[in-house]
Amino acid sequence: MRRLFLRTRAILRDALKPVTGTIVGAIAVGLLRATRYFDPDKTANFFGSVTRTIGPWLREHKIGRANLTAAFPEKSPGEIDTILMGVWENLGRVGAEFAHIDHLWDLNPESWESGRIEPAPGSIEKFLALRDDGKGALIFASHLANWELPALAAPAYGLESAVLFRRPNIAAVDRAIQDIRAVNMGTMVATTHDAPLRLAQALQNGIHVGMLVDQHFGRGVDITFFGQKTKANPLLARLARQIEVPIHGVRIIRLPNHRFRVEVSDEVTPVRDAEGKIDVQGTTQAINSVIEGWVREHPEQWLWLHRRWR
What we know:
Elements: H1 2-35, H2 40-54, H3 59-71, H4 77-98, H5 101-104, E1 117-119, H6 123-132, E2 137-141, H7 150-156, E3 161-165, H8 171-181, E4 187-190, H9 195-204, E5 208-212, E6 221-225, E7 228-232, H10 235-242, E8 247-255, E9 259-264, H11 280-297
Parallel strand pairs: 1-9, 2-5, 2-8, 3-4, 3-5
Antiparallel strand pairs: 6-7, 8-9
Helix pairs in contact: 1-8, 2-4, 3-4, 10-11
């Protein structure tokens, strides 16, 4: 009898998935479109307060606390909770800001203080060198502050780019997001089976390829992150082994008053094997070590809510 009950429940769940997805998609798309009609700063404040209130009731809160405790064993429970509340607020702000992402990049080279975006010292020079060197590059980013912003920088200043992204599971949400991203984010490459080939071709054509690389990847290579063994996506290092181009990181730092600082890292030197070829595991470790340094500086701005160590 129990087996029949479980089987019936599974059939009903599978049958209702399309309906549930449609309803959730309609709500998400409606919220995304409605948010565009409101002031971005006030909306970001509101969304941030909402996620700070709701977040502690969600299961991801426990995941975030466990991650932070593992990463910072020296911090007290009170310090961990303070960081975690900042994580929830940042996530809410990202959601609100995404609705206005096509208008969010505002960098005034004549007066950094007057726009939303300011460059970190030396970043403009590194960016121009990447743009004008006549070859492609591999650019990694992480889920820090508003992680959508790095994709806006390249097309804003004439640097041809291709950005790897993961499609949402709900088709209606995917279409709405792509409509916004398509305005000024360069070429978007979905994480399909042919994505590595498309990205390699882009590099060969002198295009700059960007991707987020800081989440757990079950089929990845072994690395150490905050002293814990985990797996990371080796795609960027594999592309570098196939087509040797410069590797740089780009990070966003959230500042007060709805502003951001963008920073281009120094070139990351790839690790090489005994034959002089780029070592995929070692280079993936080097990239994630850079990201760990970023996160240590601003832990409240990183997305701790996924199971990074498994």
